[in-house]
Sequence to fold (298 residues):
Amino acid sequence: MQNTRHLPVLLREVLEGLSPGEGETVLDATVGLGGHSAAFLRAIEEKGHLIAIDADSENLAEARQRLQSLPGRKTFEHCNFRELPDMALPHCDVIFADLGVSSPHYDDPERGFSFREDSPLDLRFDRESGETAAAFIARSTPGEMQRVLFRYGEVRQARALALRIAEQKPQTTKELSTCVEFVCKFRAKSVLPQVFQALRIAVNGELDALAVLLRHAPPLLKEEGRMGVISFHSLEDRMVKHAFRLLTTPERDGRTGAIATPARFELLTKKPIKAGEQEIAANPRARSARLRMIKRAF
Ligand SMILES: C[S@@+](CC[C@H](N)C(=O)[O-])C[C@H]1O[C@@H](n2cnc3c(N)ncnc32)[C@H](O)[C@@H]1O
Fold:
């Protein structure tokens, strides 16, 4: 039976682009509930090896259970992909990351991801380590909070809101929403998702982790290996685009313009792949998804 709690985003496009094949090694750096990984396992069959990572131990446990009956060797690691440089990983045919939040994060009111529920402000992917959003708010200066709101949420009234947050020190989703309503008035409804996104990115160090992934994952690819990343907001997509462009651009001789060192990678997606109307209708979260892929040439 299909797990409707998390419909894997852009699944057909991921499989077409990354084309996992029989006997291959696949690293899923964000296994979540295992939607994409289930399809990877079916493709790599008995002789394949799936290495599945997630920062969220509850999601990882659910993925492990869901994937256990499928063929292929499986290794599950509870860790953040920012730990990639310290992990002893084999070379891979496919590396994949589907960034950000999964449905259980929103569905469980205890996690503090949804501003529609009243709950403690947690917002961590990994509830076993790190600082909650409430603790982050409690220790942040108005200047730090303003930077987080502006940089990660592109919140226009970042300064006024940061001052209000510093004054009120909200500890629950409701208290934070009240601060946003006080400052942003009738615009509050549209600003709330930006504020929650900003805090989530800060609390989980999401952009730093992505930078590590983009730097350390491509060298792990075997010759002809493929890597794909799905991002959900422009800050992430910009980072993926720049990293992939650098990897796929040859070095040229400054004087003659001739290629001095050919690029080790080629772009599989000149433009990011987006979900079609049908997928968006079935899964509104797919609306902001952007898939970019590269391939190791030699
Ligand atoms: C969008 S979901 C993945 C869904 C998955 N592709 C599926 O089909 O079920 C993103 C997952 O990545 C995890 N995650 C986010 N950032 C992470 C990081 N830096 N390291 C490891 N896991 C991370 C989250 O905990 C979440 O489970």
